[in-house]
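Below is one such protein, fold included:
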Amino acid sequence: MSLIAEMLSYPFLVRAFAGGILVSVCAALLGVSLVLKRYSMIGDGLSHVSFGALSVAVAAGWAPLPVSVAVVVLAAFFLLRIAEDGKVRSDGAIAMISASALAAGIVVTSLSTGMTTDVSSYMFGSILAMSPKDVMLAAGLSLAVLILFVFCYHKIFAVTFDESFARAAGVKVSAYNVLIAVLTAVTIVLGMRMMGAMLISSLMIFPALTSMRIFKSFRGVVVSSGIVAGLCFCVGLTLSYGFSTPAGATVVLVNLAAYGGFWLAGRLL
């Protein structure tokens, strides 16, 4: 308790806890639909796109966050269009865009000012650098995601499991797919600030896969994913502070431990 009290005495750690929990819960809720729709790696692909966009923005002297959000949202639309077209598999499209964006970002960075602190923090994560503005954006994003899942739960359920049935039932499938893509893109951009481009996809994948070890209903997995994500982040950040380890990597390892615990519990139940 003394360690937690010490951590909460620092304003930047309070911001890290608040912003991290909000982004983690958003990523986990959206991740349930993405995992079930077999778009697990879209977070990894969009994070690389975001890194490429912010590298160009930093080199050109533009505001990194607005540029990155706009580019990542366009990339998400493009990936959805490819998936709906059916000529290219979604995993292949994600791999292609991911590698291309990351390569472009590295080249632009090397030709401009080198690997600056701003770009490096997005690449590897710097959760302690979260500003009050980042926390406010995370709060707005969380509100949007919660509204989506609370008031559109049945439609999200239908779109996730059977798009053909959802269309027949009058659900605007394309609109919901676009909405999920936009919220995912914004989550990726905000999450990169604390986890980095290399690890942000873990916030979307781990909680959903962990919850599926025990819970079988969509509602149970959604609720459990949000709780697991929030707890794992808090434990990870606390351990990171106590042992002076990288925050993002520690959070991922805690998620891995939680997955192992749920897997074992699922085998015993």
Summary: The first helix runs from residue 2 to 8. The chain has a mean pLDDT of 85. The chain is about 85% helix and 0% strand. The radius of gyration is 18 Å.
